[in-house]
Amino acid sequence: MKKISIIGSGILGLSIAEYLSRDKKNGTDIQIISTNNTLAGSYAAAANLATKGQLYGRDKHFQVKLDAKKCYQNWIENLLKEVKSEQNIKTVFKIGLGVDFFTSEFNRDKHYRRVKQNDDELRNKNLPIDFILKEGKRKIIYQQEGWVNSFILMQLLTDVLSKRKVNFINKQFTKIDLDKLSEVGHKHNIIFCTGAWTELLLRDLEIPIPEQMKKTKRMTVGTTFYGKNIFENYSEDYVLMEKIAENMKTKVTMSGPIENQSISSSTLKINDINIFNETELFEKNKELIKLCSESFANEPYLTKTNIKNLEYKTGVRIGYGHSELVIEKLNLKSEHTTGYVCAGAHKSGFLFAPMVGTLLEKLF
User: Fold this and answer.
1) pLDDT reading at 138 higher than 50
2) pTM (2 d.p.)
């Protein structure tokens, strides 16, 4: 029997387990080991599936994002059917327009020139040339953006995996556990999906850090606010809206349909995963709400924001270099155990969720 241990129960860990547990005939025994950290990034993600990265030449994972978005709805529908859920797909997943709002036509055009690839580059990558369009004097419109309800999807995956007899173990994974899994007697695959905690865990387990994780890292802690009918007269055409302040550095992201709206993008750079300045983050969150509430670009449905009784969640996110996804084989120095790391930068795990199992299996 094949044995697989997935360390971490965030969106990547659950998505990988879902993919690997589909074929019940292959005799795979899967367990997920996690402490369900309260600051986990997956549980603090608005999960807007923005693929605006096509506009940046550095985004090497854009095609994976496109492939994931194409199969996202079918993937979720199949999960809903498997657990016989009556949940409407539109409350879980939606495709719509994305829009950036700027304080001036000058700032809009400056950003447009920075991100828009020329038509020949887009054709060479088999990408639509009308994906990004200027509208009016202060807006950029993006076609076919996406949104997924992160909480519902995480719970749905958990329900499906429980039905498939995947074993969930709530504990800290230690060197003792690693040594036990490496004992003679059976082959074992271990997949580390612990997000911002991955590097610390690998060091504790005395596992060499993979090359991609040696790149310059950026670690942030951010807050996402959740609510219903936050924006008056919100257009159902949009699933993702971003307002960019005059300084072009501060922005606020609003995503989701009317019944499941969220406000995010207030992030604070940190050096220590266990220590961050809560007061400084609180002040940044005040800036976020202020920018969100301001009258902007003469858009009537953005002039008022219902900021009372909003729920919020704070999470830690990390990225390495410009890569939004790290999938690499580890050097465990064991003939019986093979290790892998799979980490999504910031909240990008949701972008790759339907495809990440396929990507990982190529390394097996």
Assistant:
1) yes
2) 0.91
